Amino acid sequence: QSVLTQSPSASGTPGQRVTISCFGSRSNIGSYTVNWYQQLPGTAPKLLIYNNNQRPSGVPDRFSGSKSGTSASLAISGLQSEDEADYYCASWDDSLKGVFGGGTKLTVL
Amino acid sequence: EVQLVESGGGLAQPGRSLRLSCAVSGFTFDNHAMHWVRQAPGRGLEWVSGISWNSGSIGYADSVKGRFAISRDNAKNSLYLQMKSLRPEDTAFYYCAKDTGSGGGGGPAALGNWHFDLWGRGTLVTVSS
After folding, report:
1. Ordered strands of the A63-68 beta sheet
2. Most buried residue, A12, A34, A70, B70, by most Cβ within 10 Å?
3. In B71-105, which positions are buried (b, 16+ CB within 10 angstroms) versus exposed (e)?
4. Residue A30 near chain B (CB below 8 Å)
5. pLDDT tens, A25-36?
6. What does the alpha-carbon distance between residue A18 and residue A9 come to, in Å, rounded to a whole number?
7. How far is CA B13 from CA B17, B36, B55, B69, B89, in A?
8. Where are the alpha helices (DSSP H) in chain A?
9. What is d(CA B43, CA B48) in angstroms, rounded to the nearest whole number?
10. pLDDT single digits (tens) A21-66
11. Mutation for testing the B interface, residue in A6, A97, A100, A104 having most B CBs under 10 Å
């Protein structure tokens, strides 16, 4: 059972906009920033969004992040087939540990 | 080339020990906090442990506290995870990950910025009799 809650799956068609949500509590998302990781099949995770809404260099601006209260969202616009992957939110927790969401498997139909 | 290469995984019986290593190249190792993150086959990511640049701050997930020990040797550009009293639920791919920050401050900043911008390919640990 992950500390942060994500829907197990999401889907969209090419060109569509998809949103993935992450729910936490006051002790984690409510107090600290949120990061998002993309994990393509058979590969290591990759940092996609940090500090709620910042993109590392090289990440397309089709990916955007936001946070409100104890929840966060990752939006992907202009969905492409290569976006099919698992997406994880992550944050810090007052219990002095890092926490991840359970992951959302994005399928591009 | 900027990379992290994990090693030391394998099959271990319950109750036994393993030591994982992560060899670092291509960046200034002692400028960064480092972390271990694991992923059971077909499951999600779980943060295991983190260490600041100078080993002054260390943290563990509750699931491994008291059994695992993280360490680093900045002279050798290497990160380690000593795992003892292994359990079947420790079976997972273990990734080492580079933090964008150095850590050493107070609160969550003690273990870095909590952004992992470089990951190794992982090493598989299987705990089974």
Report:
1. A5-6, A18-23, A71-76, A63-68
2. A34
3. ebeeeebbbbbebeebeeebbbbbbbbbbbbbbbe
4. no
5. 999 999 999 999
6. 11
7. 8, 21, 30, 19, 12
8. none
9. 15
10. 999 999 999 999 999 999 999 999 999 999 999 999 999 999 999 9
11. A97
Rounded to 5°, angle at Cα A98 from A106 and A53: 55
In the predicted model, what is the mean pLDDT of residues B60-76?
97
Q: Quick one: DSSP state of residue B56?
A: S
Instruction: Tell whether the torsion through CA atoms of A22, A25, A27 and A33 is positive or negative.
Output: positive
Confirm or reject contact between A7 and chain B (CB < 8 A): no
Cβ(B41)–Cβ(B93) under 8 Å?
A: yes
Q: Are B102 and B52 in contact (CB under 8 A)?
A: yes
Buried b or exposed e, range A1-24, using 16+ CB within 10 angstroms: ebbbebeeebebeeeeebebbbeb
Q: Which of B44, B115, B116 sits opposite A2 (nearest CB)?
A: B44
A98: chain B residues, CB-CB within 8 Å? 35, 47, 50, 59, 61, 111, 114
pLDDT value of residue A2: 85
The yes-or-no verdict on residue B77 having pLDDT over 80 is yes
Contacts of B107 (CB under 8 A, 6+ apart): none
CB-closest option in A37, A95, A100 to B46: A100
Chain-chain contact of B60 with A97 (C-beta, under 8 angstroms):
yes
Pairing of the two strands A9-12 and A104-108: parallel
